[in-house]
Design goal:
- Helices cover 49% and strands 8% of the residues.
- 30% of the residues are buried.
- The protein folds into 2 domains: 53 residues, no CATH class; 180 residues, no CATH class.
- The N terminus and C terminus are likely disordered.
- A hairpin with a 6-residue loop joins strand 1 and strand 2.
- The protein is mainly alpha-helical.
- The longest helix has 22 residues.
Length: 253
């Protein structure tokens, strides 16, 4: 039964084809049942229907935002357990950093759409590690993309909000206004008011609230998604928070 598949001891004997994107740019990929069906709600549902009708029928991802390149990055994430790294020469360039943040955002949105919590959580970890390594936070373009593609309770929205509050500076407000960014600013303001209320009630002190150890205290799992297959763990972030510089927030629209 498909529902009983487990990635613990995969045989890789069976596979299925998925068509990604719209013609003429559509591409086909071959995925292993043992690896992808246990971890993705979307694939389990799609292949269950195909199993009842025609097990050779390809699964299709052809919405306007389905991109074969993003799907290729997703396969790297699943098969290799990481995202495509940047070279040392590129990592200091603002343009490369913007592209990497945007690539991670697109990958998270796809993983979330597929119901693959493992991949989505791995992307969150990469967001935090990359921000720490480059001492940058995602730019306005990434914020806009995320707010256009996610819902209010999205953990990725929460991560971008907190990166801006704890690691950003006033330049985050210098971006050209847009409807998605207004949602981001509302989330930032709402969280700041929550912190202010905690300060008023003396639940925390200013040193505790803004002392530079927010991400160390909450850990990466605070921004992860969990279910019975991916239980919450005692994750401790390796991040050392500091004042980071946003990437081109005043110039990217």
């Amino acid at each position: 039964m498909i529902g009983e598949l487990t990635p613990d001891r995969p045989s890789f004997h069976e596979s299925f084809v998925i068509l990604v994107g719209k013609a003429p740019l559509q591409k086909h990929f071959t995925l292993h049942n043992d690896l992808f069906l246990p971890r993705s709600e979307f694939f389990r549902a799609a292949r269950s229907a195909a199993w009842r009708e025609d097990s050779q029928e390809p699964t299709t991802l052809d919405d306007d935002d389905d991109d074969p390149e993003v799907f290729s990055n997703y396969l790297r994430c699943v098969y290799l357990g990481d995202m495509a790294p940047l070279s040392d020469d590129d990592i200091s360039k603002d343009e490369a950093a913007v592209e990497h943040f945007n690539s991670l955002a697109k990958l998270w949105v796809l993983a979330d759409k597929l119901g693959d919590l493992q991949a989505a959580n791995l992307v969150v970890d990469e967001f935090i590690s990359y921000s720490d390594e480059t001492r940058l936070i995602p730019p306005a373009h990434t914020m806009t993309m995320v707010y256009e593609s996610t819902v209010g309770k999205s953990p990725l929205r929460a991560l971008l909000r907190d990166l801006s509050i704890y690691d950003g500076d006033k330049s985050i407000f210098e971006a050209v206004p847009s409807e998605p960014l207004s949602g981001f600013y509302q989330d930032v303001a709402r969280e700041l008011m929550t912190i202010k209320e905690r300060l008023w009630s003396r639940e925390v002190t200013v040193a505790v609230a803004f002392g530079g150890d927010h991400f160390k205290k909450v850990g990466r799992c605070f921004y992860h998604q969990h279910d019975k297959h991916h239980p919450e763990m005692a994750c401790v972030s390796k991040r050392t928070p500091s004042q980071f510089t946003p990437v081109g927030l005043g110039h990217i629209t």
